[in-house]
């Protein structure tokens, strides 16, 4: 008989600072329950303390600093439970799906096991240790105690607090120890479910579902791997049933037992036992033995409907139900959704040298559009399905089809992957290693991370949204630099793990999925961040150097990190700073600011504002900073995206740093903040990623206009291009027939830049727009000087209603018109230009009050004058 008892729910919780609290007695039956507080499992210690008002919400003001004592304490969770006679007499296991961190588990005052990995479950055999009535105690801490006596000397690490937290030894999200975009907030607790299992025959440890499709994409196969543990000398027979649903009614109607894929009669199969397959269902029998065994079953799916990325087709999903019976008793049932697609990374030689790096789905080259995804909350357990769906919806709104899950965070949850699968978002998943050299020369550490990798690859393998694995973030790049510096220390402690161990695990557990050792990584023994091959992190722009005009010359094959800092939404800025501190550079501002502000003797983010606008950031109000800082960030990200999209497929991605925030920030890399509000840079990114787009570039003495068409059909219309002045004169005004082939970027027009130089680059912009049936489909423009150097003129914008539209018009060029700083509601457009004499129309319901322009970029001249007067 198999049984399972949930142990999640109300528990008791108590903390100890080592002196007060009595951690040595936490596990004893005799205790003073008045000193314990009620707690929830799953849960997290900070959350319990917040509920009771003992610490403040860490995302607000300075509360993250005030709550830091929690990570230094030891914590005990305590509960009692009754075990049935079958569990007491049979084989039994305690299972904790998630423990954080360095846990010791006591059953009836006996230490029955320990666990030190956030990323994989803890499963303890407690056969013979159960009673009818049981006391279960888990004693844990944030990990600092466990790492305290570990050495970090000789290991690469780039933060000065490493000697305090020694994060490389702790298998938990590395960003919880602080990153440039996140406060240090070391989580602790039982963060996933807990339960008791028992059996007299067998239990199922894991079920893995793999979907594959042949090269012709007309025959799919669902392969199921059941990892079952037999108990005793004669566990008996197991029956595995796999059922695939999700086919259309027509497909099911056309399938009958007379088809070639249906084998209703039982047959002997390789590996022992019998199998019968009929109409999308397979049943296999296996003879179990004592110990763990893998049971394999397959279901053919003829003419499967394919899973496609967003913008390229339907992300079709199939539902796979797996049932395992032992001795006729149902011991496990799992339902997983998967999809059929062929994945390849084309790294063939590139005509210009090096190699391509093109993601191909179902034989079609796909340009990857998106950003890096970091943990959705600084308290990881708070990221629920609704939050993930909100984030993925924002990604779709911004015209994404790709997210890279960065290695300093987590192996993302099933909620995240399911939301991406349903919406057609492709995902790159780093293994959880970032910006460090890890001690895999330590045997216990190596065993730990190998188990972690196996668990997570098995867990994620069925998700069609997962398109690639990567061993780590930037470790190979930093190792390369470290080697060149001839630094003393352990030179390559983890090289074999990324280059030999992880690829073997991926090949065995998720065959066919692309893997690379690190990001960035270049094959052929090239420098890891070489532009000519592999993937790139183009950080030559973004830190000390914020001249994002330099993006225009980058030729990276697959850029997947690179960005520009900017402010979050106005509500997020206010949440970062309590009343009395709501001004630039207040103490609270600094705590919520990006640490890049401290990387150089003087603030590079402040200098970014000054160099681009001529304004002093510290003399701006918070509202003004949100506008001007956001205007700059949006322009920088647009330049990044435009450059790589117009090179499609010499460059095959435009993936920037980063998409989301884990707490409210004053300055961040993101386009969606902690409250899921759209930051000022959201709309420029959305426009730059739209399926049909246009880009204007100057190369030497020529201006070129590129049309980009991501759709499956040729785009035909009219190109309107030339030069106009800030004052409203169209110095050159051309109209040409235009055609852009499907899934291509092509040069539509080219003309000399002499007219531009003659008109004065500080007074004139190059422009291009694609039109069809008199409507603007896409538009873009190019400025050569920094914005502060342009000869801006004051403008008067007319805003009127035309049916279901708001219409904006000006005789002069209007740069960066802002109608909202909150970002909490979707808008048709924001931070947009109004071109001289041309209407800019956005959908606007009749019942809604006409939008009001809050700021325009042209006003920087007047604001400069005001700052100069005040100084």
TrEMBL record:
Q: Which reaction(s) are listed as its catalytic activity? A: Hydrolysis of terminal, non-reducing beta-D-mannose residues in beta-D-mannosides
Pathway where this protein functions: Glycan metabolism; N-glycan degradation
Q: Where is the Mannosidase Ig/CBM-like domain?
A: 702-782
Origin superkingdom: Bacteria
Write out the GO biological process terms.
Answer: carbohydrate metabolic process; glycoprotein catabolic process
| InterPro entries per record | Beta-gal/glucu_dom_sf, Beta-mannosidase-like_N2, Beta-mannosidase_GH2, Galactose-bd-like_sf, GH, Ig-like_fold, Ig-like_GH2, Mannosidase_ig
Q: Where do the Beta-mannosidase-like galactose-binding domain residues begin and end?
A: 27-192
**Which Enzyme Commission numbers does its entry carry?**
3.2.1.25
Q: Which residues form the Glycoside hydrolase family 2 immunoglobulin-like beta-sandwich domain?
A: 202-341
GO function term, MF aspect, one: beta-mannosidase activity
Family membership: Belongs to the glycosyl hydrolase 2 family. Beta-mannosidase B subfamily.
Say which enzyme class the record assigns: hydrolase
Name of the protein this chain belongs to = Beta-mannosidase B
Q: Which UniProt keywords apply?
A: Glycosidase, Hydrolase
